[in-house]
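Lab notebook page, bench 4
Experiment: in silico fold of construct C2
Operator: M.H.
Input chain length: 292 residues
Purpose: comparison with the prior construct
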Amino acid sequence: MASMSYDRHCAEIVAQSALLRTRLDGADLSAPVPTCPGWTLARLVRHLGGAHRWAETIIRTRAADPVPDDLVDDVSGHPDVDAATLGAWLTDGAEQLADALRAAGSDAPVWTVAPGGTPAFWARRMTHETVVHRADATFVAAQAPGGSAGADRPFAVVEDVAVDALDEWMSFGSLPVVRETTPRIADFMGRGHTLRFQATDAAPEAAADWLIALGADALTWRRPPSPDALAAPATTTVHGALSDLLLLVYGRIPTRGAAPAPVGAGTGPVEIRGDVPLLDAWLHAVSFWLRE
């Protein structure tokens, strides 16, 4: 269950898109995106705007079956436009999606790419899709000559949005398809292995602490009720700021070494204690859907 409300997700799709749009001002749209190899800034924005419009079609038509996703992945045919036009197009798509979500309500039956089957799934998914691609745009700004845009305005996510994004990630990571798609994770399962992600900058009431267990038959996760609730330390423990933990699980910063560009002071690498190969194997397994 999402920790943020449906209405908040609808609002954040628009708000996060507006924040990303500010990265386009004065930017070179042909600049490469270091965290999305082969993509330019223009392609990144077209991909995200296409994803918004794809999801809007699903919601507006109450689609019961998969909808063609050409808008999401086939962005090569778009003519070059200026940053202002592209930014306006992004904002328009986000607003259309938010309007469609509000009109549908959270419980209408619709097709979803993962368990859920309601607009609530898409509201949450598109919120965090937008957050992560906003980070990608920040990396572009940071690698620009001088890098001042990245240094002056480093990527950050407000606490409740980041917590909800990590909750969503953990939920995806516990789906049976994870083991079916990446069988090598089975080598680490059923041995009592656990991973723990702890935010270093969250308020205590946020409970920004995630424990993943690699059981014999399933990957499960939970939030420990308190930092001292566990009888034994995890096999691998990851400490870092909420924004950094989010960037780590999405493959935007590495488990070893520095981030690909100076996004801001304190951004990566996170502190990892214990079995790093276990963390690498888990990250590879649960991120399979990003590689499709």
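Observations: Strands lie at 194-199, 209-214, 219-222, 236-240, 271-274. The radius of gyration is 19 Å.
Next step: discuss at group meeting.
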